[in-house]
Each structure stands twice: as C-alpha cells, then as structure tokens.
Please model this.
Amino acid sequence: MTPGQIFLWVLAVIALGFCLRRGPAAVHKAGVETGKNLIKILPMFAVALPMAAFLAELIPADAAVAWIGPDSGFAGVLLGSVAGGLMPGGPFVTFPLVLAFAKAGAGVPQMVALVSGWCVFAVHRIITWEYPVLGWRFVALRLLSSMLLPVSAGLIAELVVEVLPIALGSR
Amino acid sequence: MTSFLRRHASLLVIGAIASLGAAALWQRDGGPAVGRALYHAWELFLFIAPSLLAGMLLAAALRQLMSPGALARWMGAESGWFGLAVATLAGMLTPGGPMAAFPLVLVLAGAGADRGALVAYITSWTLNGFQRVLVYEAPLLGPGFAILRVVITLPMPLLAGWIARRLPIAWEPPK
Model:
C-alpha cells in the first residue's frame, strides 16, 4: 500500500470509531451504505477502466504534445481548461482518461488546467444534476464566479513548475 | 425500457465507447493487444481498489457524523471571509458525488447560507473534495501533481464566493 492509501485507511478507521461512539447502529448504517455504493460503482468500473485502457493504446504516444504539451504555454492551458469541462462522467471515468493524456505527453500546467476545468465546468454534471436540482440561476452564478479559475490555476502552475519541477504519474 | 435507458445512460455510452475502442484496437494490433489492454485495466483496478474502499467507508462514516444545517449558521450573507472559509472547508470534507453534494446545497441554503458561501462550498467540493483527490488524483497522477494542484486551487473557492456575492444574480432555492 502507498502512504496515501494508508492515510486514507487511518482516516476511515478514525471516522468509523467516532461512529461507534454514537452507537453500533451508525456503524451498521455506514457499512450498508458503503456496500450499496460499491454495487452501484463496480459496473461503471467494469466498462470505464477497459475504455480508458483501449483509448490509451489507441492514442499515439506523442498525440497530446502539440496541443497540451509542456511547451504549449497559454494556448495549451486554455485548451486544457475547455477540454476538461467537456469530459463526461465521474472521477472513475475521467482520471483513467487523464492518465492516458499524461502518458501521451501532456505538460503539468496543462494537466492542472485540464483537471481543474473538468472539476469546475463539468458540462455533463450541470445537465444531469446542477440545473435540475438548483436551477439555471445558480448555474449562471457559479459559472460566472469561477470562469477564470482553471486557466489561472494552469498559469500559476506554469510559474511553479519553472522553479519546482514536478513529475506526472506514480509509476 | 426508456427508464432503464435513462438510468444507465452513462454506463451504456461508456460501454459503447469501450466496445468501439476494443474493435479499433483489435483491427490495428490484433487480439493479444486487446488482452494486454484489459490486463492493464485490471492492474489499474487492483491499484485503485484499496483507496476506493477506504474512501467509501470514510465517506459513509462522515455522512453519519456531520450535520450540514449546523454549519450553515456560520455561512450567512454577513459572514464575510470567515463564512467563505467555513464553506470552503466544508466543501473539501463533503464526501460523495453530485447526487449527494447538490442536494446538500439546498439544505445549507435552507439553514441560512448565502449565495457566496454556496458557490464557495460547491466549488471547493468539486476542486478539492477529499475523496476525489485521495482516491483518484494522488494515486493515478502522482502525489506531487495532486499537492501542486490542490495548493494552487485551495484559495480559489473563497475568491469565487467573493465574486458571487458581488454578481447581480439573485438566487432562491427552488421550492
């Protein structure tokens, strides 16, 4: 297990401990909820991970370099932000796809913009959740307030990476 | 039939893309290449599974412990930067996907949070929610990348909330 995973397990055990102090019923409820969520998410994994793996094989090794490579600068950051917003699905779909981009030569600032753009704009999430639950006024309010965030994050990352080189990927 | 389609729309779309991808890969590199890709996918699953399970347990436990309504009294229209900071922190701690977070916005609004705090809350959840960062981003893209992005975007929900309070768009929670 990686340090990050150990950290997450420690947090989970602490939180479950607090649940136990409230009574065994709370722990039971947490367990049942986890099981239900796992059953919901596993079919997604079963199709999303192979999809990302196939696409990673099909995308040529340097496909991303010209568009969102380390030397693509502001244009790459802008493109990354917009492309991120158009990526469909939750993190189990998007992060394997993003991993494919990283392997195809994307730069770190452009990846920061891509991930942030996916988080902030998430067109599919606006259509399926935000608009139906909260209405278009909230969508407009939120989008206007956070419009510049992904691009700014990418540009700040560009400055940081110049003094502090950061590698993408864990393996 | 239509309700089945609607409920499983993303599953079907992703499944269709996966099948097309498999077919294209088979065409180009042959069957063994498809097998290798499937094996990579399986390895990725084994890599992510421990964090996934821990993240879900943590999320479910937090949902038993937190009462969002109690937080909202710190998030009113007069709460200033402090209210935005509380909203940002609450957003980072909110577990789960959109089916959990967006209804929580309604709960917070009903308990007195203003639009700036709500924008800060949802922006913080989506940018830096602990589950997304710890379960997916750090293992897959590397801890260095995850820390860089989180540190850069950490103050941004505050800024978004500050802007939202100044925009002339009134928002009332839908009844």
About this structure: The radius of gyration of chain A is 19 Å. Chain A touches chain B through 87 residues (CB under 8 Å). Chain A has a mean pLDDT of 83. Residues 59-171 of chain A form one domain.
